[in-house]
Amino acid sequence: MNRIAKFEKVSLNQFKDDWIDTFGNKGNDIITEIYNNIKLPKRATVGSAGYDFYMPIDITLQPNCTIKIPTGIRCKMEEGWVLKCYPRSGLGFKYRLQLNNTVGIVDEDYYYSDNEGHIFLKVTNDTNEAKILKIKAGEGFAQGIFVEYGITYDDDVDDVRNGGFGSTSN
């Protein structure tokens, strides 16, 4: 098995900035406590491909509602690897929980972004059965899988990332 990455927390200051940007001052008085309780992603079993991402706060997500989650997590990867993020299978099956970008792609150079490579996951309860989704802080809600990738023979890209989500768009 290739060992090619390491999960870390972003700095407390980065987490605070992103929390306030996402939620305003809601929960501002407990941001440090939320940060201190963040769990790094891990696999559930030796045969698991996915690393579970854990919810940093309790959420209740009504049908057809969306929430953007600042996970407090970043990931340092070796060259040639990408982290692909998906909802946890059971939540997708029971609630049609979906990531708003269908599959989250965390590039190897995202770690070095201005936002410290802070991974956000925006999820929607897309149930068509009127089910209310409740996830407690510390429960798994998404999973990340590392995948090796290649480039074309004639690839001559030399641009360097300088920013977070959407920073490579022209």
Molecular structure report:
The protein has 3 helices and 11 strands, in the order E-H-H-E-E-E-E-E-H-E-E-E-E-E. 15% of the residues lie in helices and 32% in strands. The model has no long low-confidence stretch (mean pLDDT 93). With 170 residues, the protein is of the alpha+beta class.
List the helices and strands and how they pair.
Blueprint: E1 5-9, H1 12-23, H2 31-36, E2 51-54, E3 59-61, E4 66-70, E5 73-77, E6 81-87, H3 89-95, E7 97-99, E8 104-107, E9 120-125, E10 133-135, E11 140-148
Antiparallel strand pairs: 1-5, 2-11, 3-10, 4-9, 6-8, 6-11, 7-9
Query: What would the principal axes of the Cα set say about the shape?
Result: globular
The first-to-last residue Cα distance is 37 Å
Q: What is the N-to-C succession of helices and strands? A: EHHEEEEEHEEEEE
Radius of gyration: 16 Å
The spatial strand order of the largest sheet comes to 2-11-6-8
Strand runs, count: 11
Helix vs. strand class? alpha+beta
Strand content: 25-35%
Average pLDDT metric:
93
Low-confidence stretches at least 5 residues in length (pLDDT < 50)? none
Described by strand count, sense and barrel closure, the largest sheet is: 4 strands, antiparallel
Number of helices: 3
What level of helicity do the residues show? Answer: 10-25%
